[in-house]
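Renewal narrative, Specific Aim 1. Our central claim is that a sequence can be written position by position from structural information alone. The example that follows is taken directly from our test logs and has not been curated for this report. It begins with the structure tokens describing the chain, in the order in which they were read.
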């Protein structure tokens, strides 16, 4: 199993920045894919950014491209989501997700609130 713990959410004004972190533990050698998703109140969960473990190039949802940056620290088994130029519509619960040995694992989620 893979256990995920997120941190870094909070309240920020529009135009501000936050960095989310997701630390993985357990069978991290099985991880094939890592990603971030978000869910705003009353909306479905949506994709934000992801990276294949074997490929260092992340890919992004159009809504965050150019503002968010996905990175990872392999030595720490941690992935990050640097969020800049935040907008009120970015307000959501952000969750990290990994695919390991065909199983999806999710973090507990962290709230990001952007005030206008």
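The sequence written for that structure reads:
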């Amino acid at each position: 199993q893979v256990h995920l713990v997120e941190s870094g959410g909070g309240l920020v004004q529009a135009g501000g920045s936050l960095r989310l972190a997701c630390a993985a533990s357990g069978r991290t050698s099985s991880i094939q894919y890592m990603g971030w998703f978000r869910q705003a109140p009353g909306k479905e969960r949506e994709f934000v950014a992801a990276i294949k473990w074997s490929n260092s190039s992340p890919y992004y949802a159009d809504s965050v491209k150019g503002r968010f940056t996905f990175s990872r620290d392999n030595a720490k088994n941690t992935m990050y989501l640097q969020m800049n130029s935040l907008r009120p519509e970015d307000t959501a619960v952000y969750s990290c997700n990994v695919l390991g040995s065909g199983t999806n694992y999710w973090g507990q989620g962290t709230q990001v609130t952007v005030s206008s």
